[in-house]
Structures are given as C-alpha cells and as structure tokens.
C-alpha cells in the first residue's frame, strides 16, 4: 500500500507528529494512549474538544472516572477483543463526547489506543479505515516504548523487593538510587497486599497490572506480583488521610477485580503508615500478619484490613514465638484436652465460648444452645479438671490468649 492510499505510510519522528497527521486526515481531535491509559501524544491544533480530553491532557492520563465508565459500558473489553474501530457514545456524567477508538495491537497484545472525537461529524467508513491504518503505523513506536518500559519496570521491581526484604542501604542512599530510576519515594507510605484465592494466571496478572496502573484513588509508588499476592507501596497527598485512602483503594480494587473477572473475593491487608523509607519491610510484615490472622480467625477479624485495628491479635505472633521457643503448653488446657479425648466431651469448646462471651454465662449458654444449669456444671468440671479459677481475670485472659495461639499453631500459614 502506498502513501496515496495510506497517508501514514511514511516516517514520523515522534508520536506527536503521528497524532497531528491522524488529526489532519480525520479532521478530528486525536489522542494516543498506552495500554494503561497514560497519554502519549495528542493532536495540537484542535479548536473543539470535550472535558474528558482536556482532563486527560492536563493530567497526562485518562481520569479514573472515565476509565470506570468505559468499562461499565463495555467499551474497554470490546477494544481488548478486536482490532476494528469501536464507536463510543457520549457519557455526559464524565464529560465524554462521541468518539471512535481503535486498539493498537501486536497480535493479541494491546499496546495502546487511538481516540478520535467526532466534534464536527461522525466518522464515515473511509475514516474508520484510515483510523485502522493509523493504529498499524503507531505499533512500531509503541513496541519500542514497551521494550524501554519493561526494563524500567524490572528495575522498579528489584528496588521494591530490596525495600520489602530489608536488603537496602540508608534512607538517603535508597532515595538517591530511586531518583536514578525516575522514582520519587514518598515521605509517608504504607504497604497494601491483595491476596487472591489462587495463584494468578497470565491473563489475571495483565488485568491486575492494568488496574494498578490506572488507579487514581491513591498513588501506587511501587508494585509487584508474587504468587497469588499483589503487593503495593501506596501514598497520598494528604498524609493524614493515607490510612483511609489505602483502605478505600483496597476495597475498590477488590470489587473491580471481581466485577471484571468473576474471581472469588480477594483478601486484603494493610500495614501501618510510616515516614522512614527503611520501614517498608515492617509495613509489609504487618500487612502479611493481617492476612494470616484473617485466615485463622475469620469470624473475629474478617472485616479488619489495617494492622492497627487487630488489637491484641497483632501480639499473637510474638506469643506464639515464645511458646515455640520454650516448648510451652498451658497445663490447664493440656489437662482439658486430654479429658476431652478420653471422654469424647467438649469442655475446651465450652471454655472458649465462655471466654469469648466475656464470662457472661447466659450469653455463653445461648451460644452453645444449652441450659444455664448445664453450662454451670460444665464450668465447674472445667475449673476442677483444669485447676482454674474462672473468677480470676488474669487467668481467664491467659487461657484466652493461649487458646488463640494454639489455634494459630495448628493453622496453615498463607
């Protein structure tokens, strides 16, 4: 095909020149984005446009509200499936006017998108053919850009793993290294982990990467996928709202991934907010602890996402460590466990329910579906066999914590 039938069959020094050429041929404002909706180029001589395009140019990326609306209307999924131009009807709520979009592809892989506004008139069949030719012309430039970004992404992942595992230098040296990679490490941050039920396949990884790149609820400074976990270092312009923003991001991310993939609900854990960049490892460990405790005590902690919300549960790892170090087993619980095995009784379950109910006999009896007299008899036997003073608050608390750590010790790690 020659230049007469293909106006883009020539050399363009940069994507901006290609965007201008597309805009001139189509007589329409044009933007070129990468696969994660970051603005790469736009035609410069457009007198008419719409709020969505203006916001994209100013922010150098498509606003998250626009991306969300395009997903809901099925536009993005359709663009991911076809290399044919797709007409997009106005979405007034997000300032989006009529336009046509086409994906820039290499085989089945989407490299980016070209968007052309229909401000003067709808694009006709010939214009749609030209738009498809423009996508082919953009492919080689986006492939080069992708190769460069893959190397940058690998360097960013390596830096993040250094921070997560504590294999870093001083805060000043770490920040200097980050700057050489074009990364500005935040003054305040926390680590968010999204834990999927099973290991992510390639398609799910692509969707997760797409979503983490397009989110604007928080600023994801660094991210990495490890097995069935997405680990993200996040920050917020308002450090006082970072904890709340991180929780909002995690909830929204999990809901969107369910809506778009139909996967089972992921778990989420968030470490504490820190200011020293060398504390990334600590925030990461705290987020992991949240997930571990959620898995072992779902009824009690299933709704908790922040480490600081765990209360005494966050001390259980240290209690368990000490018990393992000294090979300690609570003698009262040991006697009750042996009695239950020998007599096929459930005194341990009764004791746990009584403790969970704060020593309230009526509430515990209701939870166990037994008469209060039956519970009183069981508690008397528990006190005798276990040599326990159930009126002693310290003893009750010790028993409660030992039962929790025993359950952790018997549980499967994440």
TrEMBL record:
CdaR GGDEF-like domain location: 170-293
Coiled coil spans: none
Pfam family, one: HTH_30
Domain PucR C-terminal helix-turn-helix: 347-404
Entries under Gene3D superfamilies matching the protein: PucR C-terminal helix-turn-helix domain (1.10.10.2840)
Family indicated by similarity: Belongs to the CdaR family.
Protein name: PucR family transcriptional regulator
Species of the source: Paenibacillus ginsengarvi
